[in-house]
Specification:
- The chain has about 120 residues and is α/β, with parallel strands linked by helices.
- Helix content is about 35%, strand content about 25%.
- Helix 2 links the parallel strand 3 and strand 4.
- The longest helix has 17 residues.
- The protein is globular, with a radius of gyration of 14 Å.
- The two termini are about 25 Å apart.
Length: about 120
């Protein structure tokens, strides 16, 4: 899989946009970064801890843009976990997830285990 960034400048711009989107969120959240076998992963958590878990995995730093409207609607009914791939370098050394093998499932299992999420809706 080819890495999405050709330059460090492009990677930094994406990271800056990511932080700006976080600053625009109209609700409170917790931001975590979990170290996994496959690389560090950004986790954004919102909603009441006593609500059912809703897990929203996404692609490279895009989760905020695509799921903000969904989150606003569902935050009262769920504990929402945005699981987001961090940017990869053009060498592909920062995040080693492959879709051709069991990497994706193993990665998700590591994350959910560390978050202590055992029952969740995965969307």
């Amino acid at each position: 899989m080819k890495a999405p960034f050709c330059t460090m400048q492009a990677k930094n711009k994406i990271a800056e946009n990511y932080r700006q989107k976080l600053d625009e969120l109209p609700f409170s959240y917790e931001l975590m970064q979990i170290e996994t076998t496959y690389g560090d992963t950004n986790i954004i958590i919102t909603g009441s801890a006593n609500k059912p878990a809703l897990v929203l995995p996404a692609g490279t730093d895009s989760v905020i843009s695509f799921t903000m409207a969904i989150t606003i609607e569902l935050a009262n009914d769920f504990r929402i976990y945005w699981i987001d791939f961090p940017p990869r370098s053009n060498q592909g050394t920062e995040f080693q997830l492959k879709f051709e093998d069991d990497s994706y499932g193993e990665w998700m299992f590591e994350i959910l285990s560390r978050l202590n999420v055992h029952n969740a809706v995965l969307a």
